[in-house]
Amino acid sequence: MERIENFLDKYWWLTIIILSIPAFWALLVPGFYGASDDLHIGWLHQMDKVLRLGQIPPRFVPDLSFGFGYPLFNFVFPLPFYIADIFHRIGFSLVDSIKTLFLLSLPISGIFMYLLLRGFISPILSMAGAVIYIYTPYRSTDIYVRGAIGEIVSFIFLPLIVLSFIKLTEDHEKFNFWIGIGALSLASLVLSHNITAFMFLPYLFLLIILRVFFTSVNPTVSIKRIFISIILAVSISLYFWLPAMVESNLMKYDTVFAVADHFPTILQLVTPYWGYGASVAGPYDGMSFFMGVINIALIIGTILILIAFRKKIEKDLMVMTIWAMIVIFSSIFMMNYRSLFLWENLPLLPYFQFPWRFLVMVTLATPISVIVLSKFKYQNYLALSIIVLSVGLNATSFRPQDFLGREDDYYLNRYIPTPLASQEYLEIQEEYLRLPKNTYARPDRNYPLVSSESEEIENITFIDDLKTEINTQSNDKFILTYNKYYFPGWQARVDGILTEITPGTPFGEINILVDEGEHQIEIFYQESGFRLILNWISFISFIVTLFLIFKNRLPIRLFQIHNLTKIRG
Question: Which domain holds residue 379?
Fold first, then answer.
């Protein structure tokens, strides 16, 4: 056992990668599979397109909604697509770029969970926690059933955020490093999946309160460091979340999902059912909400240990364990129909759509509870058993129902309706996208980019997907129609002078009133002044954060575990 401990202490990261192989092996099969959210491949195509057009940060994409475009990345989490586009730029297909991101999320999330736990317990127990985190059944549901790219990436940052803010409540010299890492990881969570961020923040604030008041040597200093880190995180992600909130009133609120239809039953949470279907009303769901055999056993065991050894558990271990139990049981309550009154009355909760999303919090908190196992004499043997059982019981679920082998062309045909919408697209029509407020009907076909009521248009010069030049000649005033959704950022110049644009009907398209005579009109998309200011604030905050991380020429030593953690007991 001592040899195993020494090996893990030295090659813990390699061990996590090797143990992750059964979880990501199916992703190595060529082509994409039958995941629910395969539309993200089309969205990655749009991200890549607007980045190549120089729209930084991306907000309005040109091809969705029959070519009327959509302010997609003004509201949809952009970071997973930024990362996936890096793989695409170096030569990966769109499909392989998405799958590579899915693959890397498993070992990297396990690495950060190990780092978090290693500050409290032995290498082998930390490894057990990391393996539980990777092999919790909901992780497989996210990757192989839902294909939920935002949640998939958020699992990377959750344990790193917890680790960072724990470090900020401790007394050590590397607080600048952890202020920066905390800010960067928290901002990354917001940019990866805003719903998970909203869900997690109350729990993070609870952890901060518990750590500051029960374990911090200097609470005032801890609060100051935490405050700086949070402000930087808020500022780094400001360019995304503030426009998303402020400009949400420019979109119609509608959803095809009713919260009340998606509460899992307690039996569904504890029954080892596995399926590839959808979430439906009642207890007849095709997808699994099972928390996992090892997870359930660990939760029960943790409660018993807390009762039996409550006077022997160190304060910092007790705080972490109690926090994990609060997260787990409050999340279970939020997934139960008895919490419906909260879903109906608390702001933002309806945007979550599915109460079972709180399985993300259960997945995060359960591995943390392994720290109480350090009270057992034979903890190492127990940890090895957990590792073997976690992989053995769950590995078979980490695969898709069907290896469809679909490549980029299939998804571009299905989700990108330009220059002409396919039959597959006509059957979908993006009903999941909220319409702009001035849009009274969804487009039903492809329309000419530029049109008017008569023949005033003499020449159209298509510059790129977000800029067009038009020459007109008319004896009377007329309305020029530009068939893109009206949204802040679109501008028009007539003979070099900015002119007013208005939303038309029924699609909320861009209308421009043009005077009689000969005119040259430019229509283009660029950042509004409001967003431009936020972009600079976020960029400067990002640079400041990097400065804190590397302030004293410190490399990021996340892989040098003994330099970053302090083992209790």
Answer: 2-22+77-407
